[in-house]
Specification:
Elements lengths: L7 H4 L2 E3 L13 E7 L5 E8 L5 H16 L8 E6 L3 E7 L1 E3 H10 L5 H21 L2 E2 L8 E4 L4 E3 L6 E2 L13 H4 L19 H16 L19 H7 L10 H8 L9 H10 L6 H15 L4 H18 L7 H8 L4 H7 L1 H8 L4 H9 L10 H12 L8 H14 L5 H18 L3 H14 L5 H15 L5 H13 L6 H14 L6 H23 L4 H4 L13 H6 L1 H17 L23 H12 L12 H11 L2 H17 L6 H11 L2 H5 L33 H4 L11 H31 L11
Antiparallel strand pairs: 1-2, 2-3, 3-5, 4-5, 6-8, 7-10, 8-9
């Protein structure tokens, strides 16, 4: 039986990436990029090859291997795994880059900010403080080659090869034997007399001064160059001079050095350092402190390094939302950091959190999500939108808070291209119909119309045919002036979705009625839209062969390309009206569609008339002289008397008044009842289609075509206007229908009063006065 020896390097769970090692390390170790075999996650692997005759260096490497495994601190290079064989030593750490290479790359990319350097030096000094004050260890190798930078831009202290105990129980400092490292030794080490008084941290603080000089000025040519601070910031120069002073006794302790630099106005007193310190202790902070921190974080993220935001701030934000109940305050910084991520990273890290947030019942979170949807909508796929996001978003249409309803409407501009047939053409249209018909806030009704105009190109052909014309016609009768403007712009934005017959017979009559609107802005847009539709009709009239080309989009399937007109015509509403919506809501918190101080314009005949307007008109006319006090007879009788007495000019007024009266008997055809029944039965025809309100002329009415206006008149027909001259000149000519009815009511009341007085007088004469206690028998 044969036994084969196992290769420990082959069985090691980490592997080297086949490329040359990274330079910049003058010590015995070579730094390689590596990865974990199971997951492929990146790591750094320090490799030392055992060579014959280098026993001293091998002992130094083995000591460093031991230090890496036993020392754990956030600012010291993190040990992951290790391998020790007779031929080599492998130390696996977090993925890092030598500081020298990192600084060179940043200079080529535009330079390193002082904020980053201040935090990097803060980390190195804090690591030295931990070693000296807590562990009584002297690093003995602080230099550029001993500092590494991770992917978040955090500086880590490494180079533990020459570390020794400050208490002297492990012997003196090991010999380096490398000139590149010995140039950082302080001058007092050259004095072998031992008469120089120094602290245990004095040598490391001198080397820290050399590191500061190299970070700002480049490689140190000789020790004498330390006398010239060069590019070191002025706020750091006084503290730097303490580090490189000739007297080792006055060099500050690392903890005191940090305290001095963190003083107000100091080099390390800035927002970046404060943010990092808070993140390090965020787990023990109070909830109120976390809330305040996340609220202020967004303002500072623009000045922070991109790598820091991606790899340090983002994980803390996700953790705070997942486990810390941070709520809506994390959304703004979360989406701001999300801009630095690739599409794949965004899908992995941000989208799962966003989907979970939409199911939250927290109103603050819901409105923040709706307001910032533009930042993440491009990363959402259609199945996620239709099954996990849209069902939660539609609840905002029914919210009692107007701000949430408004933001929900606006969000449909971004969600519509990703909605399926049922959600877009049925569910969404149902909510839009209810908002446009019944929402008490005028700005929300306006934005609903604007949104419908902008997403009209995404609707199916059958839905467009049923919805658009009726919805925009209704908007033109809204008492809120911007809603009427939005209705006109909606027609114009979707002009390519209407047939020529609809343009001539349905749209232009509505627009013509708006030319006498009380608001000039409405009239201006109406004239503009009318000219556009007329020019379109005229071009087809001149060349009928263009009809097919002009109507090519009418029956076409939904297409995003057809929405370009909507973006240009109705784009004003998202920036103009929408920015004022919250102000309008605050100033008119209870404004309903029928309660407004905007003058009502005349409604064109043959169009929808709201039931409330009909009732108001009837009540105004019927209660002018308190007709409800007594039974004064039927209005039909008054109308018959009026028809015999009035002339042709008042006849038009009678006709209009009869239409108002008849509209009360047609309450089932009013828009409010139409849309309510549509909500109950889910029928689009009842909700959006425009009812035809043409009425047959009264009996006996002759059409204009029946008269002979130009030719000789036959002998058997009299002049149709002859009866007008025979009218008595004393007949009163009331100015309006209301005055006629008031006059009739007054006469009828006088006549009734006289009749009652006469009856009472007859009873008194016939029976005489009644006696006290007598019982009335009849």
């Amino acid at each position: 039986m044969w036994f084969f020896a196992r290769d420990p390097v082959r069985d090691f769970p980490f592997e080297l990436i086949p490329e040359p090692p990274e330079g910049g390390l003058p010590g015995p170790w070579a730094l390689h990029r590596g990865r974990k075999k199971a997951t492929g996650s990146p790591v750094s692997i320090f490799v030392y090859d055992v060579k014959p005759g280098a026993e001293e260096q091998t002992q130094v490497a083995k000591a460093a291997f031991k230090r890496f495994k036993t020392l754990r601190h956030p600012n010291i290079l993190a040990y992951i795994d290790g391998l020790e064989t007779e031929k080599c030593l492998h130390v696996v750490t977090e993925a890092v880059t030598p500081l020298g290479i990192y600084l060179k790359a940043r200079v080529e990319a535009g330079g390193l900010k002082e904020l980053e350097i201040s935090w990097g030096l803060h980390q190195i000094v804090k690591a030295l403080s931990f070693l000296v004050n807590d562990c009584s260890l002297i690093h003995n190798n602080v230099c550029m080659a001993a500092v590494f930078v991770d992917r978040a831009g955090e500086w880590k202290l490494g180079g533990l090869d020459y570390m020794y105990s400050a208490q002297g129980n492990g012997g003196g400092p090991p010999r380096k034997g490398i000139p590149e490292l010995e140039q950082y030794d302080p001058p007092e080490l050259a004095d072998s007399s031992g008469r120089v008084v120094r602290e245990k941290w004095s040598a490391d603080m001198w080397r820290l001064g050399c590191l500061i000089w190299e970070v700002f000025n480049g490689p140190l040519p000789r020790a004498a160059a330390l006398r010239n601070p060069g590019k070191i910031p002025k706020t750091l120069v006084p503290h730097y001079c303490e580090l490189v002073g000739a007297n080792p006794k006055v060099r500050p302790n690392p903890a005191r050095f940090l305290q001095n630099c963190r003083a107000p106005g100091g080099f390390m007193s800035n927002r970046f350092v404060e943010t990092n310190l808070f993140l390090e202790e965020i787990q023990i902070k109070e909830p109120a402190e976390k809330q305040k921190f996340f609220q202020e974080l967004s303002k500072s993220l623009d000045a922070f390094p991109e790598d820091f935001c991606r790899h340090k701030v983002l994980p803390q934000l996700l953790t705070a939302f997942e486990f810390g109940n941070a709520g809506a305050v994390v959304l703004t910084p979360l989406f701001k950091v999300g801009k630095f991520l690739s599409a794949e990273e965004y899908q992995q890290k941000i989208i799962p959190v966003v989907v979970k947030m939409f199911s939250s019942t927290d109103r603050a979170m819901r409105i923040r999500l709706l307001q910032q949807m533009e930042q993440f909508i491009q990363y959402l796929d259609e199945p996620t939108v239709n099954t996990q996001i849209f069902p939660h978003v539609v609840h905002g249409f029914l919210d009692t808070n107007p701000a949430i309803r408004e933001q929900t409407v606006k969000s449909m501009l971004l969600l519509a291209p990703k909605l399926n047939e049922a959600n877009l053409n049925v569910e969404l249209m149902k909510h839009f119909a209810r908002l446009q018909a019944k929402d008490e806030q005028g700005p929300i009704r306006c934005n609903t119309t604007v949104c419908l105009g902008k997403i009209g190109s995404y609707l199916s052909a059958s839905t467009r045919h049923r919805v658009l014309t009726s919805a925009f016609s209704r908007a033109t009768r809204d008492p809120f002036a911007p809603s009427r403007v939005a209705g006109v712009l909606g027609f114009a934005a979707t002009h390519n979705l209407y047939s020529m017959n609809d343009c001539a017979q349905k749209i232009l009559p509505v627009l013509c009625g708006l030319t006498v609107d009380p608001e000039k802005s409405v009239r201006d847009q109406a004239f503009k839209a009318i000219r556009s539709f007329l020019s379109k009709l005229e071009s087809v009239s001149e060349d009928p062969t263009q009809l097919e080309e002009v109507e090519k989009d009418v029956h076409a399937a939904s297409s995003p390309g057809m929405g370009g007109a909507a973006a240009s015509w109705a784009g004003w509403a998202v920036t103009g009206v929408s920015s004022l919506t919250s102000k309008l809501i605050r100033s008119h918190p209870t404004t309903a569609p029928t309660e407004t101080n905007i003058p009502q314009r005349p409604t064109p005949e043959g169009h929808w008339e709201t039931q409330e307007e009909d009732k108001d008109t009837a009540e105004d006319s019927s209660t002018a002289d308190r007709w409800d006090d007594e039974d004064w007879g039927s209005l039909e009788e008054a109308e018959s008397v009026l028809a015999q007495q009035d002339d042709w000019s008042t006849g038009g007024q009678v006709s209009r008044a009869s239409q108002v009266s008849n509209s009360d008997h047609k309450s089932s055809k009013s828009p409010e009842s139409d849309w309510s029944s549509w909500e109950a039965e889910g029928s689009w025809e009842q909700g959006w289609q425009e009812p035809s309100s043409q009425e047959p002329p009264p009996d006996g009415t002759r059409l204009a075509s029946e008269y002979n206006w130009g030719g000789p008149e036959s002998s058997d027909k009299g002049d149709p206007f002859a009866t007008l001259s025979a009218r008595p000149s004393t007949q009163p000519r009331p100015d309006s229908w209301g005055q006629v009815k008031a006059e009739l009511a007054r006469k009828k009341r006088e006549e009734r009063r006289r009749e009652m007085e006469a009856k009472r007088a007859e009873r008194k004469v016939a029976k005489g006065p009644m006696k006290l206690g007598a019982r009335k028998l009849d």
